[in-house]
Amino acid sequence: MVRIAACQLSLNVEDAYYCVSQALDAISQAISNNAEIIVLPEFSTSGYCFQDINEVKASSQSIGGEFVIKCLQLAKEKDVVIVAGMNIENKSKYWNASIVIDNSGIVGWYAKAHLFGDEGKFFTPGDKAPLVVNTSKGRIATMICYDLEFSEWVRLAMLQGAQLIALPTNWPEIGQTKTSPPMEVIRVQAAASQNKLVIAAADRCTTERGQNWVSSSVITNFEGVIEALADSTINSKTQIIYAEVELPVDTSITDKNDVRKDRRPSLYSSILDK
């Protein structure tokens, strides 16, 4: 069993210092509550609703920046895994990114491949498969928000042996039909169940430049059952949800069926041409 925290943060694109402070406070609180894997939202160090490239530049972080250094210190001292969504500047480009840190250091970082809304105005889309890495707490994959809606992307993580997907997200309210739980949560459940993966999705809260959020951070087990779900009616302050879950050791779903072994890739090849 592993104890996971998904941190639903209050963020403000006009105050990057506030965002970083909120992120570090949430990590510390999760550690004090014995979390072993801590997931932060998309753009947890900057907020989301950028108006121009100057705002993106001003709030960007480098791989070797102060926030990452602090996370490295905490991960080493407390033996935790931290997965944080960040606005990363690297090689003179800006990336909607997720970084994975454990007690050994930076295990890797991933750039969001499927950009949403206005993200393409400012950020370069990633061109690599989901990051799947061995950490001190298990084999963890990361992708970001809209990426999860592409079933091929989640399947790639499963095929690389992921036991858990850490999903930084900012799920916007854009007039979608209200369901209970929200459709965004149902998609997480389906992805977990179809691929026999634990998923921890960290959403955000607080209205930002008129944009509201689904605010429904969730942790599922590998059958897709919800183990913890944020209260979406609390939209003004940070919530941290916790769950102790078993990480899968294989991809079997019965004594006769396996979501990896039962695949028939030769029948699916035409999907690549569509």
Short description:
The chain is an alpha/beta fold and 274 residues long. The protein has helices at residues 16-32, 53-59, 66-78, 119-122, 151-159, 183-195; strands at 2-10, 37-39, 81-90, 93-102, 105-111, 131-135, 138-142, 164-168, 198-202, 204-205, 218-220, 226-229, 239-245. The longest helix is centred in the first third of the chain and has 17 residues, at 16-32.
Describe the structure.
The protein has one domain (about 1-274): Carbon-nitrogen hydrolase (Nitrilase/N-carbamoyl-D-aminoacid amidohydrolase). The chain is about 25% helix and about 25% strand. It is built from 6 helices and 13 strands. Helix 1 runs parallel beside helix 3 (about 65-80). It has helices spanning about 15-30, 55-60, 65-80, 120, 150-160, 185-195, and strands at about 1-10, 35-40, 80-90, 95-100, 105-110, 130-135, 140, 165-170, 200, 205, 220, 225-230, 240-245. The protein starts with a strand and ends in a 29-residue tail after the last strand. The radius of gyration is 18 Å and the shape is globular. The protein is of the alpha/beta class and about 270 residues long. The model has no long low-confidence stretch (mean pLDDT about 95). Strands 1, 2, 3, 4, 5, 10 and 13 form a 7-stranded mixed sheet that branches. The protein has a 6-stranded mixed sheet with strand order 6-7-8-9-11-12, covered by helices on one side.
Q: Which secondary structure elements does this structure contain, and how are they paired or packed?
A:
Elements: E1 2-10, H1 16-32, E2 37-39, H2 53-59, H3 66-78, E3 81-90, E4 93-102, E5 105-111, H4 119-122, E6 131-135, E7 138-142, H5 151-159, E8 164-168, H6 183-195, E9 198-202, E10 204-205, E11 218-220, E12 226-229, E13 239-245
Parallel strand pairs: 1-2, 1-10, 2-3, 7-8, 8-9
Antiparallel strand pairs: 1-13, 3-4, 4-5, 6-7, 9-11, 11-12
Helix pairs in contact: 1-3
